[in-house]
Amino acid sequence: MSGSDQLHVVTSDDISDSRRRMGRALVWGSAALMALVAAAQVAQTAGWRDFGFANWRPTLYAYCLFATCLCWAQVLVRGEQGKRTLFVLPAALFVISLTVFPLLFGLVIAFSNWNLSSLSGRQFNGTANLVQMWHDPFYWNALGNMVIYVAAIVVEYAIAFGLALILAGQIRARKFWRVSFLMPLMLSPVAVSWMIGKSMLEPRFGPLARLARALGIENPSFFESPWMAKLTIMVLDAWTFIPFMMIMLLAGLQAIPKELQEASRVDGASGWKSFWEITFPLMLPVSVTAILIRIIFKLKLADIVITITSGGPGGATDTVTSFIFREYRERSNVGYGTMLAMVYLVLIVIGMTILMKLAARLTRPRT
Amino acid sequence: MTDTPAPIFRDSDSDRSFRMRWWAGRAAIYGVLALWAVICLFPIYWTATTSFKMAPNVMQGQMIPWPADWTPEGDWAKKLFFAPKWKGWESIGLSPEALGRESTARAEFVKRFGNSAIVALSASTLAVVLGSLAAYGLSRFRYRFGFMKNDDISFFFLSQLILPPVVLALPFLVLYKELALLDTRIGLILLYTLTVLPIVIWIMKDQFETIPTELEEAALVDGLSIWGAFLTIILPIALPGMVAAFILSLVLTWNEYFFAALLTSTHANTLPVMVASQTGSQGINWWSMAALSFAAILPLIVIGVLLERFIIKGMAAGAVK
């Protein structure tokens, strides 16, 4: 894809055999040390022999040592090529050790009954968690809610696009508007849920409740009926994330060459028509990127739900994340929660793959 | 009007209607802008003013802080104006009088604030360092790790973005418990670095790809090593992108709640956890909650106002190719 703009430098390396041997020795030596420490720790947990470890930290340190040696040995063994590998290797090791390993570990947990607060420890229970999940109406309800929440992105997108169009046009005090429109994104969702969810929407004294009453609504309540609560959460989340989409779309709008719009105006197209025929099609790739990223963020929605409604009323506002959070907090069963999360991950990966395929087809330049 | 002689230069009716439409369009645009600005800023104003209110002010719905001496007479003034008090700030030990004396509430707040600052700053720094290196490598060299080539490696990094935090949360809870990393700042820093790393790599890769490779080629010919060229030539040019990535990471990590709520309990609590834990207890204590929330969002408001163009640059990266 990006072959032409890469750096091509041929360097001759003179790596002596002893240096190469030392590099290999470093890698294998530290790996052996790590294996040794890990084996000792396993032996202690299994109760064969007591080495006096308080926790698994020694293995962690051995792993860090191994990772450092691995990076160092790259340069020792492979010279210039190794120095290049050194750019990517630390990040790759970091991500692998912090996601791949916990994910594999999570798979083990997902198939077990493990209550952290009880002393019995982990028990393998096969697919019992899956069966329980299948019969758990609250989990399916949370998944359904996620679909509704994601669908709300269409409205967010429309608003964000409108604002971006205005900001890209001829206006005064552009910087002021941009900064104030950006503000909601900077605020912590937890603070927002207090500021808006708990105080501004408070049914008796909140300013928005007062406004609603002034508009003739008796007893405004924003979190009582399931649909109203869902809607309020959507609005709150939209409030935080519309700036994000707006800025991406604004960047896209500013990258469109001015001549195109001018040409369409000369040809006599009205503003509305030139938007649909020129601006919107040109913005399609940016729009798709913005929406995809927004979906990814939306799927993580939890903070405001946990802090404002904690899923209520009756699970109407639950997201998958907030549901698992509550499930863990109430029963501290790690196994079941992990299984729910794993199923969620699989659904997300399938869904996102389909969406990305569709998006690629949608944005493919038409000839 | 009809008997005055017709002026020589006169706007035709169509011109006039055009100007009317133009003014109407302007008015509509500024109307929308003003409305949205109110929607964005009013909650912040509300929180800031509520932190200076007392119970009666909240119940009567007074909105504008105004010194008591200058409050004009009349019922309308009573409905609008209230005399600001430091009660809310006193409850977290940050009012002018409370600053002079010892206060456990302030000590608590400062501790949480410090935790948040340390965790957010270190995680963002670590992510920018690791991410910039990886992004530079991926934008300049051709790699092959087993079956994985450059595009696969990039995709591997970016795909971490899809991973919802809840999938990692419980395994991490168990792992951290075994590693004695539960309720420590290091544990949070590692996790936060992981969550913002894909974003940093995305922004930085975009940044490095705009820098021509001739620069390094020249530097290499002049005898610098590849790391020397990277550190002395490329990094200074890529600095704006790094700042953008850093600020964006800072915003995300400062505001993070989910992991902090699960993985910390007493020592390493961050500010969002403190804010969230207050809401349940003792009813709603409006003024102190407002003060606490406002103190929690203030640093980011300042950053947002001062460094807005970096944030926008960061978010725009990758949107436009």
UniProtKB/TrEMBL annotation, chain B:
Pfam families linked to this entry: BPD_transp_1 (PF00528)
UniProtKB keywords: Cell membrane, Membrane, Transmembrane, Transmembrane helix, Transport
Location (main, coarse): membrane
CDD domains found in the cross-reference section: TM_PBP2
Domain called ABC transmembrane type-1: residue spans: 113-307
Membrane topology recorded in Swiss-Prot or TrEMBL: Multi-pass membrane protein
Location(s) in or outside the cell: Cell membrane
Regions crossing the membrane: 27-46, 116-138, 153-174, 186-204, 224-250, 257-275, 287-307
InterPro entries tied to this protein: BP-dep_ABC_trans_perm (IPR050901), MetI-like (IPR000515), MetI-like_sf (IPR035906)
UniProt family annotation: Belongs to the binding-protein-dependent transport system permease family.
Protein name: Carbohydrate ABC transporter permease
Organism: Rhodobacter calidifons
Organism taxonomic ancestry: Bacteria, Pseudomonadati, Pseudomonadota, Alphaproteobacteria, Rhodobacterales
